[in-house]
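Q: What structure does this chain adopt?
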Amino acid sequence: MKNSFSDGLLPKIFGILMILTLSGIALRPHKITRGFELARVAQSDNSPDAAQRFAALAEQMPYRADLWQQAGFVALAQHDYLAAIEYFSQAKSLAPAGMLALGDAHQQNGDLEAAISIWEQFNNQFGSSEESLTRLASTYLLHDNYDAAIAALKELSTFNLQPSTLYQLGMLLAAHNPAAAPPYLHQAAEFDSEIETSARALAFTIQRALQRDESAYTLLVAGQELAHQNHWELAYHAFARATELRPDYAEAWAYLGEAAQQLEAESPSGLAALEKALALDARSFAANTFMALYWQRQGDSETSQAYIQTAAALDPQNIPIQIYLAELLAQAGDLATAHTFYQQIIADNPDKPLPYQALTEFCIRYNFKLNEIGLPAARQAVLLAPRAAAALDVMGQILLRLGDQLNAERFFLRALHADADYAPVHLHLGWLYILQDESVLARGHLKAAIELAPNTQAADHAQRLLGDYLGGP
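A:
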């Protein structure tokens, strides 16, 4: 007699198990369940073996492609980029987030070409997205591919009209194809008041230069404005493009040399560009000025002075150059001659506040006759420019040096009222408040100096004061 259980229920159970297996849904053994628990705990604790635990589960459950992705995400979060690449690559197919993350892992591992390839594949497979285009634009730039970066940003601007995207696009175009930049810069300025001044200044500079109908000149002028706004990498690209269009353009070579120096101290390519500029035109004002700066940075004041004297002779009405020459004399240790030179600049420009400010700063910097010469010069600067932040600030500086903290603070605050974004006055107020043990006020002004003028001497000085007197950030 046949067993009714085996005839009826048992085949049904086997059938259900077969269906579950074929559909990828298996009854989970205790070992695997425990494996998931340990993997999640390791991930929560940010344990180094968290990614390996998910990878082990993926090997045991090949029908769970998502586990390789999970292992990749965990490895990427833990900055183990090689492991992340390995795990993502094990997955038979990647979800959009996984493919983006695989590109991130390649980029963080230094393989920009692989990252670009993955994100381009993402666009082909899933369609372009804000995430992929943002990544591509920034990586194309790291790869010095301006055309591709500009194309990516143009497509990105169709997804979401963000001022930051429009501004970045306008900036890249200013350095690469200036004629196309103004519309994007003006549009960005309309949406964001914080970038309005710089965006409109760049657009106006380009539009004015375009009237000459000379592409190399427009690139040079656009690069000068980008440099003025402290965007030296973009400026370098603009100057390089100008020299490509006109290899005989001495001014473009001169500015290219200075941009190279700004990006890399003691840059051999910077010196080579400056030498090229002088070979093309020995009487180039820009080439002589930037060559003087180059040698000053190398600590060779004598050679620097020779070039700046040539520049000063080429443009005797250029007050900043005359002041720079006086400063070179001071750096060489000849304070008396430097003072005489400052006095001559003042005699030639008695109604200009800048020479008086420069003389005051010279007296402060070298502790040179502060009461007899520095203080009267500062007063004259304020008389000529009573609402100029720079003049008010220099008055505060010399008063502070002379020990008059009360009146120094008064002039610093007047300077701040004249221009709240003038970084040097924030630096000097920060130092004043350190002297007065007002640490909260000091910290606020020093941080403002750093934020308003990053990568400048004022910012570096403020950072040192924060570290030396206020315990760091």
